[in-house]
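Quarterly update, task 2.4: zinc ion-bound model.
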Amino acid sequence: MLKATRDFFSSNKFVYLQNLKKIELHTQLSVFKSKDHLPLLTLDLMDAAEKARENAYAPYSKFRVGAAILLENGEVITGNNQENAAYPSGLCAERVAIFFAGSQFPNLKIMQLAVTARSEKQTLNVPIPPCGSCRQSIAEYEIKQNHPIEIFFMGETGQVYKSDSIKDLLPLLFDSNSLK
Ligand SMILES: [Zn+2]
């Protein structure tokens, strides 16, 4: 077995790579110099996310995350990370907020999501993106409502990154089509 593996990587690898076709996936983000450069409506949303962030329950990671969702009727839903001594039982801010929005306002479109993070260990001056599980959850709602969700994310300070759709953060996403 080991020899076969070694042979594959030494002799066949070259032929194998030659026969590969590669595809490129294009994604794009916009960059705001700082929170203060956001459009007014989104600045308010980021402020709401910041406020929610400070109420996070993060005794283990000391990493507080706040999320704010803007619905099509102007309603704002916020959430923050909720940790647990049994670590996987906790939940990220983005999913706390989006599940609440989905449960309370199932027929309203989610227009924007703002996310901000603050660590008690260091100053976060780079944008903190949603984790993979949150991206997958956001994707579910974007597909369900058939309308892109704009996502703005930042650290405690510094630049704000914006994706026009979850597709820019999660190319080749798994959706219900994969189940057919
Ligand atoms: Zn997450």
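Highlight for this quarter: The CA atoms of residues 125 and 158 lie 5 Å apart.
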